Amino acid sequence: QVHLLDSGGGLVQAGGSLRLSCAASGRTFSDYTMAWFRQTPGKEREFVAAIIWSGDSTYYADSVKGRFTISRDNAVNTAYLQMNSLKPEDTAVYSCAARYRVTAQTMGVASSRTIRYWGQGTQVTVSS
Fold first, then answer.
1. How many angstroms separate the CA atoms of 41 and 33, rounded?
2. How would you write 34-57 as a 3-class SS string?
3. Is 24 helix (H, G, I), strand (E, B) or coil?
4. What is the pLDDT of residues 49-88, one digit of tens each?
């Protein structure tokens, strides 16, 4: 089992920044590709960004490219999502996810149903 704990959400004005954290416990963190997804009421869960187990490769949704940065620190079993230049349309519940040794692109294109491990989610609200 992998346990994921999201944190760092909040209310921010458009153009502002937030950093989300995902603390992992259980299995060996450095064996897992990590990703962030987001969801708004009535909509499908949307892929945001992913980073492979070594941190050497990342993959982003077009809607966040150039504004968001995913990273990880395997020494402290934590993944991060730095979100800059936030827009009202970024408002959502953000959840981290883990999957064993897949490419970052696979996390982005495969169905979210293929992912077994999820954080509980953290609310991000961007005001205009």
1. 26
2. EEEEEECCCCCCEEEEEECCCCCC
3. strand
4. 999 999 999 999 999 999 999 999 999 999 999 999 999 9
- In tens, the pLDDT along 2-22 reads 999 999 999 999 999 999 999
SS3 71: strand
Nearest to 121 by CA among 2, 1, 8: 8
- Where b means 16+ CB within 10 Å and e means fewer, 8-46 reads bbeebeeeeebebbbbbeeeebeebbbbbbbeeeeeebe
The one-letter amino acid at 126:
V
Residue with tokens 């603390």, as numbered in its chain: 23
Task: Look at residues 30, 17, 23 and name the one whose alpha carbon lies nearest to residue 96.
Answer: 23
